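User: Can you help me understand a structure? I only have the sequence.
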Amino acid sequence: MFAAVCVAAQEEDPLCVEVTLTGTGGGPVLYNGLAAHGTLVTYGLKSKKCRGVANLQFDIGRGTTLRLSEIGMQPALPPARTPENQLTKIFLTHMHLDHTEDLSTYLRAKWLFSPVAAAPLQAPIDIFCSKDVTSEVRGLFLAPMQPPSARVTNVTTSCQGLVAAASAEVTGSGELAQRLAERPSRKSGGPVDMATVNTFEWQNENLKIVWEDSANNITVSAIGTNHIPGHNSYRIDFPVGSVVIGGSSSNDISDPNNRTTSASDQLLALANGADILVQSVIHPIMKDTGNTGAAYPLDFFYRQTQAKDLGALAQQAGVKTAMLSHMIPAVGAPFWGAWTIPDVENPTVAGPGLSFRDYKREVRKGFVSASPIPKIIVGRDLKSRTIPHRILKVANTQNLNASSRRVHLL
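Assistant: Let's start by predicting it. Here is the structure, written out as tokens:
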């Protein structure tokens, strides 16, 4: 009888997952107010907008904090507000500015307002990322007939270094000392004290669980994928479905003559059966930019997943919905940084920019008719998608509440 009542209650207010694109700008280019790359994945009761059990942010590029504030997500809140409106964890795919730039902004806001926030919101937020990786970086192969520089440099990418620098601006400007003098209850180290870094080994052979909420049957797994060393893609499994964040992943083989797809083999396995896949894409029109001005660097082009190949991967993996993000170039952009976008119908001349339809058409080129076709969403900032709820059976009827119920699919 109790279980029947629980199922009826879930039908009225079920648990659900929502995926929101907090930024869809591709690369470090500034265009038309687009935020840089970021995705919010939330889980909770439908009445709470699918939030509150877990609010997970994947990448936090320029403008993310403002986008989050537009949908009521705040770094620190007055006691009257609820945990549905604050992030639970932050996961980073890699150490490029367009994926990390707003981390310091978020931590600064959290630090400034933490003394007046509810006690749970004063605690540092967990940040997950790969351990430091040192690798060789070679000069770019910019265009045909222009060989790359022979220069080779050893470079270390460091998530811990990124977080450690979060207090640098307010320290250098003197604001840290000023704010501490005004309110000594603030943490003395500044914004850096509002983060706890959790690192894991970067490797591209085996999937690794990097965070788990056993009380709510949530796991976040990571695997190394190609873009730059240290780049990870993530899979989030909930009782009601699964979400995959591909980041800027691409195939391990950079030479297009020695591969059959620009998409990542690891991502293909990671996305198997996923409800939603979020992935950056590049449109092939960028290869034609040499017709209308400066040529887009081929190294940049070949380390991104092409839209057609994303379509093929999503269909092969059995993904239900593919959300395009971090699009290069942005929809409607006649220029992308230093590059003039050719006309999609006549690439020898400059065009008005790509449309949503142009991106969908390119993704569909990767589909084969014999298999189910995923839904395609060409992303824009704050576009969201909800995983339809499923009726769940409560595993622990003695401790049923919104934050700690344990459930599994019937």
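Now, to help you interpret it: The domain at 2-396 is CATH 3.60.15.10 (Metallo-beta-lactamase; Chain A). The chain has one domain: 2-396. Let me know which part you'd like to focus on.
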